[in-house]
Design brief:
Layout lengths: L8 H8 L28 H8 L25 E10 L3 H12 L4 E4 L15 E2 L6 H5 L6 H10 L2 H8 L11 E5 L2 H16 L5 E4 L1 H8 L6 E5 L3 E2 L2 H14 L3 E3 L6 E5 L2 E5 L3 E10 L17 E10 L4 H6 L6 E5 L6 E3 L5 E5 L9 H15 L10 E11 L6 E6 L2 E5 L5 H17 L21 H19 L4
Parallel strand pairs: 1-2, 1-11, 2-8, 4-13, 11-18
Antiparallel strand pairs: 3-7, 4-6, 5-6, 9-10, 10-11, 12-15, 12-16, 14-15, 17-18
The structure holds flavin-adenine dinucleotide (FAD).
Amino acid sequence: MTGNKHLTRREYLQKTAVLALGTGVSGCDMSSPKTTPANGRRQASSESSAYDNGSVPISQSGWATPPNEFADYPMLEGDIDADIAIVGAGLAGASLALHLTEAGVKVAVLEAHQPGWGASGRNAGHVLPTLKDINLINGFADGGRRFLEAFREHHTIPFDLSEKYGISCDSAQLGYLNMCSGVDSYEEQKKAAAFWKEQQGQQIAFLDTADMQRFTGSSYYPYGVLYESGGRINPYQFTNGMIAAAVDQGALVFGNSEALSINKNNKRWQVSSENGSVTAAQVVFCTNAYPGSIAPSLGNNFYPLTAYALSTQPLSKEALEVINPGRATLSQAPVSLNPFIIDEHNRIIMSSIPRASSPEDSERHFQDNLAWIHRTWPESKALNIKLEHYWTGRVALRDREFPGVFELDKGVYGLMHFNAWGNVMAPLMGKLLAQGLQADRMDQLPFPLEKPTPVAVPAKQDILIRKLLIPAARIGQKFNIL
Ligand SMILES: Cc1cc2nc3c(=O)[nH]c(=O)nc-3n(C[C@H](O)[C@H](O)[C@H](O)COP(=O)(O)OP(=O)(O)OC[C@H]3O[C@@H](n4cnc5c(N)ncnc54)[C@H](O)[C@@H]3O)c2cc1C
């Protein structure tokens, strides 16, 4: 690897403070479904804002194509009753609905579009069995003991739930590999892995250059840390599968039913959409980075950040032999600019942050990733890898690296802000919150119950990450510093 003569990689990173966005980055459908043009050229500027705010039609997501056989849920008409009303049917709302109905609770779910429309139908598919900030969890009231126990038991929750409910969602536990570009990042990754290996009993393998060559088909990254319980999932199918399982257990699910207002009605809450209402003892908002206007305190308590993902046409047999034959989910250290999977349709799926100046430019973002593929697997230059789908979605970031569970009023809650690591955490926290609600022990949750507080500058992370750090990291990558 060539290096900048005046700046070591470490110095470069310190100067730019480049950060890896978790698993990889790693979404309001306002128009009729369209597909990304096969040539991936720039769209008309009127569409640019939908790319910019992660609201392109869900039909553009590679996870929703080829078309899946999910029923469209009917619009809520008339007034109904439930024990608990859930607003939003992404991974969080779907898991909450599933675990509540499992416990016999009568649930009604309102979704503004259809299940999986938000980030959950748009993400990069990485299943990462770790947490960002253990110190923060150690600061929970019980020292984090109960949450870490739950994580230890359920860090494979997407695989477990898909198996339990027979959800067909490309659930593949083939490992999560942090590819390290040098000894320093390898040592850091090994240090971080020690906690998961020793305290959480995870199977973790440390790979040298020969292992990396054998496992990934490349030795560009000379070391790797492989979390064997990680892998990939089709998050759109997983979300819809959980919703379908909840419906089988008695949940009422309504699509195209945006919750527009919430009012107290005789000690219960009435959540109203355009043509109906749900009256329930408790309400949980699972609206993440698409909060709408119904609960203003959930509209300004996080940092929205747009991310993109793309999928290629299915790879040829030859390409499948050359590129990542071990099929683990790949990310890179010290900076993960090119999170990578090959899915069940033999497509590469990658994800990052779109350029602020041209979020709609699918071909340009594809070329960024193709350059990385060519660099990592030089034989791939002779292979014809083509873009098929490009889409964007929205994540919600917080100041603390842990999702938010909020109490807005007595009986009104929020479960949200999963950054770029919702595939494990949203179903897990949906399960844990369901236990607290069902037992009526919200004082016993294994994580803090907070009041929503506004962030000072909601655009902060967009400016910092999208406009400064990622562009700097791209330059670093161009000059082979990363
Ligand atoms: C490009 C990209 C890549 C990512 N990669 C990964 C990854 O590889 N691994 C990983 O673990 N995580 C990843 N993430 C993050 C992950 O997708 C999210 O953390 C997760 O999907 C959040 O789920 P959710 O249910 O909280 O929110 P969402 O899936 O966003 O769902 C919120 C839902 O609420 C609905 N809603 C909002 N307001 C209302 C209302 N008033 N009435 C009714 N419905 C309403 C919306 O329509 C939406 O469907 C990625 C995200 C993106 C965008």
